[in-house]
């Protein structure tokens, strides 16, 4: 028997907010009760079955099939269970999510994981601006959990992030880790400068790509010059995240020594940028500000 599934039957002319349509909420509901759930449209509340087909199935996971790029707040307030989405999603993915496992076989819009508090999120495609960063009207971004982005990221990744781990297989646009308060960002691809402006605390770990350096500057404005530093936590972190990252990135033994720059000293920060390799080239760039 297939999993409990929802499918869009037609595209809404504007936006829909699916926050609260999550496994822990529908677990004990009948199909009729799920169909009658209220979702928010731009102008008025809507019944779920006005726009989605609900197909009954095993309640071990909730599955969404089809293009949800016009739907915001997907997996919002999820507490436990498994939610698998076959298609793209809109803005503010996983807002208020505190547990469970969310898998998106597609891309996501802006503010993906901005309000993530716990659980595991995996996005197969690209994400828009402010992923794991502070959402609209919020002072802080992601505050817990783990998010893996298989594609590339727009600007301001992890801006004002508070806690948790974000891992990115692809490239990251400008402004990464700006005003980051704490947490860990692991970058496998290139990271555009400027980065880490106003970094307060936390770690930006740059894993060496196959063909070219992760960044095009050895000297990041506001940070100390990189120095080889022995870090007891580094092999533990790398061992913990190895299963989630591309194998060539961690094909070597887990090192205890990395190149380390501290900052943003211009803003009184105590964060760090780490390189697992030393093949960097010098360049110039201005600081970014979120």
Q: What key phrases describe this protein's structure?
A:
290 residues, mainly beta, 13-stranded mixed sheet, 6% helix, elongated
Describe the protein in words.
The protein is mainly beta and 290 residues long. The protein has a domain at 107-275. The chain is 6% helix and 27% strand. The longest helix is centred in the last third of the chain and has 8 residues, at 234-241. The chain is elongated, with a radius of gyration of 20 Å. The termini are far apart. Residues 278-290 have low confidence and may be disordered.
How is this structure best summarized?
The protein is mainly beta and about 290 residues long. About 5% of the residues lie in helices and about 25% in strands. The protein has a domain at about 105-275.
The number of helical runs is: 3
Beta fraction: 25-35%
Largest sheet: 13 strands, mixed
Radius of gyration: 20 Å
Largest sheet strand order: 5-1-6-8-9-10-11-12-13-14-17-16-15
Based on DSSP secondary structure assignment, what is the total number of beta strands? 17
Overall mean confidence score, pLDDT: 89
Which consecutive residue ranges, at least 5 long each, have pLDDT under 50?
278-290
Task: Describe how the helices and strands are arranged.
Elements (H helix, E strand, L loop, with lengths): L2 E6 L7 E2 L5 H4 L4 H5 L2 E4 L3 E3 L4 E4 L2 E8 L5 E2 L9 E5 L14 E4 L15 E4 L19 E7 L13 E6 L15 E4 L15 E4 L20 E4 L3 H8 L15 E7 L7 E5 L15
